[in-house]
Batch of 4 targets.
Target 1
Amino acid sequence: MHRGAFTAISFLLGALTSMASGYLGMKVAVFSNVRTTVSAQKPGWTACFNTAFRAGAVMGFALCGLGIIMLYVTMLAYRVHYPSPDQWVHLTECITGYGLGGSVIAMFGRVGGGIYTKAADVGADLVGKVVHGIPEDDPRNPATIADNVGDNVGDVAGMGSDLFGSFAESTCAALVIGSSIGVTGGWDAMVFPVIVSAVGIFVCLLSSFIATDLKTVKAENEVESALKIQLIATTILMVPAVYFVSIVYLPSSFDLQATVGDAVFTLHPWEATTCVAMGTVGGLIIGLVTEYYTSHSYSPVREVANSCKTGAATNMIYGIALGYKSAIIPVLVLSVVVYGSFTMCDMYGVALAAIGFLANLATGLTIDVYGPVCDNAGGIAEMAELDPSVREKTDALDAAGNTTAAIGKGFAIGSAALVSLALFGAFVTRIRHASNDALFANGVNMLEPLTFAFLIIGGMIPFAFAAMTMKSVGLAAMEMVMEVQRQFDEKPHLLDANPTERPDYDACIAISTKASLKEMVPPGAMVIFTPLLTGIFFGVTAVSGLLVGALVASVQLAISMSNSGGAWDNAKKYIEKQSPDSELKGKGSDIHKAAVVGDTVGDPFKDTSGPALNIVMKLMAVLSLVFADTFFAVNGGGGVFNLS
């Protein structure tokens, strides 16, 4: 009875924290957009870069701080009811609701926000840029306000709640798998995963001064390197910092019950540190590989830009191929991290590696929020009809932000894969505990007919989800296109150089809002109800197959979709930077129009379906973990049909 109530309270706290951090991020972004535009009017690059960077930092540090404080205070409160180390296994099971709460809000924030922003963006691009040839964010375009609002909804609130969910779930998974550590190592050893995240905040805080004070941005070509240095510096500083806290908080040796089998491992602080370091370095490698495939400073994106010479079709082919190719190295890195951490510390090592991935979360979020702030600053410069040099400056900041946003998505996808695997390990641990080792004592047998059947079904879920979200954006974008065209037809003077009429911005905002609220329900419901119905009707072996299938397919699809979209976007920006006399003809040419088509298709790839697949694998896994006892209660884990 108490465990159910405590889990429900954790769920509410996780959901409220996720909503609060998203709201805070949007509030800060809205205040900072205008300030960045004003700073861009000043000579030099330092002021405008620092304004946008600090806006992201507020979101990053607030979210991490809120998340850790709420989680730790909740654990201390539950410790009153579960005072002895033998009872802490129940405490960690109650805490799993915190991760679920964050993840459910993230699902609707990510999917709803993605549909909102991309419906407006695609609609504004198709009618404005492609048909009528007016610039992006031109105040004559009725969808321009909805587009700018959408950047805050999708890229700030959506990304924030997504990464908060990853942080909460990775911590919950590590606590459940490592609950046996408390018996021999004490409270400090058991909460080591929370301590690692807390140390990450201080490391990110120190590193942030590099960009704003020590090595300031003085020229356009320094913007991207300044953001990259942040990621590299936090990764380098994180390893010795984690080793120091492992020596202080972990005993010289402590025991851990194996996830599979009856073995008890004796672990040491250096092994825990190595697992965290593997995750941290693995995250950096995935981030840098993502940058290589999505930045127009390198050949892959330039190849995509050159493919636009022969039209939109070849642009699409090159972009999709780039996305598939970009999944190779990240998947190999994830495989090495999983193998290394599992070999060293069993499934607890995988959970620590997931926390290592998110150790510099504050910096990751800073860089991520920086992008939409610069994007909106450019929109404000365009709408306020400021000097074109202001827009050029914000566009340069935004181009770097686009690449770093892709790096952020790479981090998010990689961490989601490890979090999902760690949650799966926690699910197996909890079922073993509930069944007194009657189930999963020797692991999950993938060759059982029921498990393998649901493995294939699990692999289908990400594709069904991507199809639903892509179509939702398409439907909403069509409605937006028709509304914008209707306004241009009814008010032809809107297209004059100095229009005497004002567009109806509210009508476009209403379309995006209604579409996002309506269209996010079916994909969200599918992800939430699939593991629940599978567990209740087919049992825990079917759930284990479902989770593994969804994890394997989601990782590949998420990386390829996010990177294809990022590459199309930056290929378009690369063409826009060229002069009319150059090979790529620059803005307004047929080559540019082909690039705009690619960018428009890439919008739902990189900002709706791709990133939301992180949440598919995490949410299904954390739901299964929270409802593990419920599944076991139905025919001893066999489900209603009891087929196994």
Note: The CA atoms of residues 276 and 356 lie 4 Å apart.
Target 2
Amino acid sequence: MAASEEHSALFPIFVLTIIALPLVPYTIVNLYLTFRKKTKTINCRCSACFHSGKYRKSIFKRISNFSTYSNLTVVLLWVVVALLALYIKHINTEHTGSLEFLIQKKAYRRLSILYHPDKNPDPEAHKYFVDYISKAYQALTDPVSRENFEKYGHPDGRQGLQMGIALPQFLLNIDGASGGILLLGIVGVCIILPLTIAVIYLSRSSKYTGNYVMHHTMYAYYHFMKPSLAPSKVMEVFIRAAEYMEIPVRRTDEESLQKLFVLVRSELNLDLRNIRQEQAKFWKQHPALVKSELLMQAHLTRETTALSPSLQRDLKKMLTLAPRLLEELMKMAIIPRTQQGHGWLRPATGVIELSQYNPGIFLSSNPAVPLSARKATGGSNEGYGPFLQLPHFSESIVKKIARKKVRSFQELREMKPQERAELLTQVAGFTANESQDVEMVLEMMPSISIDITCETEGEDGIQEGDIVTMQAWITLRRWNGVIRALPHAPYFPYDKEENFWLLLADPSSNDVWMSQKVNFMDEATAIIAASKAIEELKEGAGASAKEINASVKEAIDRVKAGSRLVMGKFQAPSEGNYNLISYCLCDSWIGCDAKSNIRLKVLKRSRAGTRNIAAADEVPSLEDGAEEEDEEGEDEYDEDYESEYSEDDEDVKGKDAKAAVANGSAHAGHHSGSDESDEN
């Protein structure tokens, strides 16, 4: 009897332990991740973002995080832990001094009569009388037993370790139905539940890559990506994601989609000369493709009021998936495709343009930012799109300020704050608050500079076949002095981090030699990576420990000041001069990209041996089973509008004259945008 009560008292302790083991570390990790960036990451504070809820969400972000189902579950589990702790404490209080103490104080006489062997022939009653009641009598009469009881809670003194089963009493009664319940519980918890979780996890994880993108999406992006893919055609590849194809197309959506088609028809790349045939061809596509493109264009042109509630939910789901899908689309553009292991420049820049204008960030706070905003207009040679990422701007405003000789977005950024405020209030007709909103967004826009070198380690000059080391420092500056910030995106429903892509490319051959994603949000990781890279580089060059420490310290200081180190290696091509361009492309802001020319001089091999020559099987090549690119498709490069990254041959030659060349090694540095010191 007492033993069973003791076992039952252990069960809450067992449950408390099982809950606390995963709950405590999970809570600590989540609290750390929530509060570690609380001071340095800021949201846009313009009125557009405030009214859209972005700024208010940033203020209450740590509180609102607890509104998710996972965090509510954590809170509920902590409540259960607290209740169990109180219950266990209550049980211990009741049993302080063990059962003998209660017998001594209240019921010794009654229980001695009830369980005395002369009164109760039950063997269990006899055992209970000997084990408990007799000892209680000793504690009452014997001074030594009483002292032992006060010190150790037992008349016989210190007791040895007692083992118990931490299960409730009804599970210990194996007779009858309880045995079946226990068996079912063991089978369910120990066999069926783990197998079910494993099957569900494996079936879901087998469909996705490490970036939570479906494998079918990767296959589609790889197959439809072409070297001559025009920026205006990237949308057609982007919407072929398997995640979008799985969004159901309902019969009730048809009417809304028909109305939507009329509103966004001008953005669908339809040939106006054969508009009827083009419309018929558009509607003959897979219904999921039609729906995905119309919803994306509706968001770009701010025509979402025509959407039904179900379509609005579908669009929100598409926007949730868009950032990582665009990242994978970018990877499919720069993945090694040629025998030399080069990617493709044209589709890569097209993906960046799409992410700047479109699903990646949706910058504008104005009625529309269609892809056609990239086209040059009479007043501006870069289109009015860059202006539309500023609050309260529209195409008519751009035309007004163009009359005052402000024809490019860069010219607007380079103006002094007072002159810009006068322009916006007097010419554009902005109020003082609207002008201040524009200033806030401009203060958050990044200015990027590139300092890049390419050389063969330990050798003078670059010879064909050498392994060339590229070292680039990417530096970010903002007028407000902040390094980590979330971009101005009032129409995008979620926070999105800024990402930059560094490309070392040859525009004349459409080849991307080197590429790497750069992020300024995680300073700690950047410090570790830069320190390790510099240390390995200096050790390979035979530097002393003092020189290595000095170089590592300098690298850490540069990272803390807003720079990121990018390093990579590539095999030098055959002898010749190569006019390369290093691009640093931002996926979140228009007009904030940087590029610099670098002339790479490769000498004929004169060094003995085959040092640094990569083996033939190490050269990246096209994946097995990949289809050969259609020559006719390559010749049909759509030039419906010119990308801002395109250059004519004369422009390239003119800039190449400014590139630094020294004994076969190359170095180039470039600052994008205006000099931010002039703006402050």
Note: The two ends are 82 Å apart (CA to CA).
Target 3
Amino acid sequence: MAEAHQAVAFQFTITPEGIDLQLSHEALRQVYLSGLRSWKKRIVRLKNNVITGVYPASPSSWLFVVIAILATMYTRSDPSMGLIAKIQEHLPASGSMSMQCQTVVSAVLFSTLLWLSLIFTMKLCLKQLLSYHRWMFEQHGNVSTTTKVWVMLVRIFSGRQPLLYSYQGSLPNLPVPAIKDTVKRYLESVRPLKSDSEFERMTNLAKEFEDSLGSRLQWYLKLKALWASNYVSDWWEEYIYLRGRGPIMVNSNYYGMDFLYVTPTPIQAARAGNTLHAVLMYRRRLNKEEIKPWLLRSCIPCCSYQYQRLFDTCRIPGIIRDTVVHWQDSEYVAVYHRGRYFRLWLYQAGRMLSPREIEYQIQRILDDPSPPAPGEEKLGAFTAGDRIPWAKARKEFFSSGVNKRSLDCIEKAAFFVTLDDDEQGMMGDDPAANVDRYAKSLLHGKCYDRWFDKSFSVVIFKNGKNGLNAEHSWADAPIVSHMWEYALATDSFQLGYNEEGHCKGDVNPSLPQPQRLTWDIPKQCQEQVAQCLAVAQPLADDIDFHVFAFRDFGKGSIKKIKMSPDGFIQLALQLAFYRDRGMFCLTYEASMTRLFREGRTETVRSCSSESCAFIKAFENGEDVEVCRRLIRNASEKHQMLYRLAMTGAGIDRHLFCLYVVSKYLGIESPFLKEALSEPWRLSTSQTPFQQLELFDFVNHPDYITCGGGFGPVADDGYGVSYSLIGEKIISFHVSSKHSCPDTDSHKFGTQIRKALHDLLQLMTINQSDAAGSEQNHSSKTQNKKEL
């Protein structure tokens, strides 16, 4: 009980002789050091706020302006044109301040005002410069003079050594597209998916909307765009995520994987020690804003707003809508192991625990033989089921007493950690099937051993494999992916392990025991937990996953045929779906709008008339040159759609916001209702690899992560996540539902592989072989017709 005694700073006992006061010097020292660390963080935060506030200038530039003004005054000239004298007249009268001193104070005040005016002007100029997006539509190597001048001006006004949030005040607001442009692009996107009669009916609905209700809704939307930082993001977060009343497990949450071919150590506690320490190192860099802002083409900044809620954040259930709550710098994590919850402190005496110390503490949890309290083991199922039962149960059973304290501990933790008893990864006699099970485990686990409401949960498996599960409402996948890349690289290449597989360093045996959370779960609450689990378990069991790393070629080979790697993969997915289902479908590809302040995502409708024309020609055995021309047209169209989406000229977010306004006004729009109710049977997303410099694919080719994935959006469709890893690997995560007889993730994965090979062969076939290839292709088509 030594730790418990140290936790008490002082004790007093009343005796006949008086009051006996006993001080614990060690506890007081811990309190002092913890408070000192807290104040240091506040000072760093204040300093960063000042630096960010004056960017692209620097705080030291204020001194330069003051000195310049004073030096000019001493040359008997007035750079303020009489303003310094005016300021001096309004200074409070003071007999202790000489005339010369008043002049200096007035000059300093004028210099400060001049400095702030210059900063405001520079921010405004940079904001106007960043509103220019023509550069995105110009081909590499064919850049216009205007864009070259623009790049030079952006570099001049951008300053030096920006912090993570330095550009936030200079980013432009997301523009509201014109109604006619959005309607036109929408009709173009659905043309290949509708019959002539269906398209004519939809065209009439669109025209009616554009001529009548659309302009009224647009007026309200423009008014919001003038007032808000981003006219989409707050409504997107609320209505797409927080107002959803179904389970967020599978339907909203997503996952990230460990290295595919390598497990740095087979010791679960050691892997947890390095992983948690690496994540804390990332949080320290995040708090100090030492993470570099994401710059496109090395000079065009993207919004960093989403990083603010990466840690210390939890989704809180509500009856009508959930809320996302963010706290400040929690010093512990909540840990789940064998049905029990623990609080694990990661700081002591104001310092971060070393990886070896965290390993020691994790091992203590693993060795703890205590059983779960009644109702504790499956408590996490509340976060996996429907939201309304969880909101009601939280209010009824967790609003006071020991249950509230324990729930607060989980929700206010830096993040959540699961010590899983299963072994996962590419292993055993059937490594491919085991990788699929690994993905399913990260996505939903046992439906009660993850806390799906936390911003992210780190999962450490028994054999040392790890991964994470992330909640989607507070940010998009690239934010979590950036942190996870850093954690994996730091774990393996910076921290490392000793020869026995343990974390490096020494252990402090006086560390306090991890604190077991206590619960008082009544029978009625346990019954509700079982009901939530009964909802979540069938949903998890229905998910069909297939994960594979395509290593035959990568983006390096695709670039050689002068095609966009993303466009090439999207066309392969279109071809694979057509072969799988014999039809085209509305296809969702997520793109980012982080060129704008608080931007999140926009939809690229990858299935276009151009892509459909190519696939029909290719499958019907058309001439090779015709197919090549059509595939290039389709790729260029896809790139154009992607660029439009990134620059605020997308379709779906604009229609979504118009629909929200119509609901606020109580007006029904047949066009908006039908346009937004069409199913996305193929939902795709590329997870970008953002920190290639942290990895060495040449000397350590097996240290690659397979990215992450998500569940299917439509019951009869596929969810496909892919990552371009280096120059030679493309990873795919394919999801669907067993309950749908028309979908099969493994079959679709096979079709993706074949489509990738067929497209590359089409683009690389020699002219001399074209005739033979055309003959073979035609014979295959003839055989199909005969069958």
Note: The longest strand covers residues 729-737.
Target 4
Amino acid sequence: MEGFGTFTGPDGATYRGAWVADRKHGYGAKHYANGDYYEGTWRRNAQEGQGRYVWRNGNQYIGEWRAGVISGRGVLIWANGNRYDGLWEGGVPKGSGVFTWPDGSCYVGTWSRAGGVCGTFYPPAAAASSALSSNRKRSSSVDAAPAPPSSTLAAAAAAAARISTASAAAAAAAEKRKAGLPRICIWESDGEAGDITCDIVDALEASMLYRDGSLRARCSPALQRTRSSRFWFSPAESKKPGQMISKGHRNYELMLNLQLGISYSVGKTASLPMRELTLPDFDPREKFWTRFPPEGSKVTPPHQSPEFRWKDYCPMVFRHLRKLFSVDPADYMLAICGNDALRELSSPGKSGSIFYLTQDDRFMIKTVKKSEVKVLIRMLHSYYQHVCRYHNTLVTKFYGVHCVKPIGGQKVRFIVMGNLFCSEYRIHRRFDLKGSSHGRTTDKVDGEIDETTTLKDLDLDFVFHLQRYWYKKLLEQITRDCEFLESEGIMDYSLLVGIHFRDDNSATKMGLPSAIASPKFSGKRESFQSGGGFFEYDIDRVLDGQKPMSRLGANMPARAEHASRRSEFEPLVLTGGGFLTPNQSSGSHEVILFFGIIDILQDYDISKKLEHAYKSLQVDPNSISAVDPKLYSRRFQDFIGRVFIEDDG
């Protein structure tokens, strides 16, 4: 069996999806004979990657799988409304997680494989609402809240005991799993939810795969081939940008404060019922201070840092934005506030901002000036309407705005946003493109440039060929986004572009080690349209178990062709940014592109007007970045139209 097809076994179980060498491999859905259902990715006959398993009694798991077992990050939802969001290993909870009851109460803690759990219980929404109602004053300080009733505390203790018992039972059940049996127990429970077991393989497959208590996968020689270092690299070998923030780092306490504050903010808003947004939610005065003493308070946990104050801006709006951008609250909290430390990046620009990355690369935290916070809050309502209307928007995705004020220290304001380069693909080259030319080159010599260096307009020596569909979609969305930014008086933004070269020859030509490139591009692609937009995937990459989906600005296939710049000041181009012409003699490369519009919080204020006046006396006014929003938008769109061209192949 090879390709796409449906197989029905003698017991009535049915699988419909991708096959390689008689094995389920790729994306597929399976209806089990007992009524269970799984839909997701497979690898060599076992669940691998993202998948959704639904039991016939209504329980379901949505998340990551490894070698046919629940492992990684995922959520287990019981039919009675209970749910566990967190980390898994070998079919049992292990690591940070959140257990939530139907009444809205939740337990945030850390699970061990042996069944132990420690954490904090948060009361249901009704108790949380009454505790916060007397303190819900704009720009006021929340120092304390009424203590939860003794019944709530008793419930918390009982909840912790139930969770610990269930976790221990699950761990024991997993350890006692009998070799050769097609079902395993994931979570045991004496309550109404009942035990949760899973058909990892059906009886027919078990007879083929299990021998003497060990799993033996039969594969074709093509799937058993050795992946040489020529084409493959381990993610651990790739150079991750940034410095790990550990104890002793100058910003270690700031990181702890960020994690404590965000954990508190997400937990507090999650305990309140979701409601429709109103105009007061966007009010610049919709901000709340909370005090974090080291000994803790009735609403904050004890911690080892000096006392600090924490400010939340428009929390309900950003809760809706996180939901709109498909950011799960538990994932958000675990990525930023979990056991892993953040990584600090040096700023590639002149702003002096400090960037922090989560260990999974999904979220980026940036320190910002007071003026930038004011701009974002001022345009927040228009921003929300724009991203709701255009799901393919390329503007930065914002998840939260906060402020930390240590006692006796300076305020640190920061925003949480999505990381454009969060991908299993390695980013070999990155460019910050504005469409201007004055000062738009890196200050590093060739020997110092590596894959973490952010290059600029005059360093760009490629034009990117896109398929007709993607090219049209890109120009349409760039126009919409620029019109939005222009209407808000925003300028000085950039298109951040990341390039992944798909073959080792391209990497070698770029001065990169050949071992960091991905498999050679096969050219076999399929595409389809759905309600969420247009997607494309490379068949070989799907069968190899890698994420296939492409969307505007992420995982986009393209052809990068070397280009030469005729002049820095081409008279036929209004931008003064030069003119790129394809250089066919230098060849082209199959690439994967990631890009988005960043730095959208600078308006054309008095400082930028003075900068424009001063620099205009020295250089061509059209070559500088500081110009009025209307001219900036026109120049930016013109530049993008020359860097990205329609593929005529």
Note: Residues 3-124 form a domain with the Histone H3 K4-specific methyltransferase SET7/9 N-terminal domain fold (CATH 2.20.110.10).
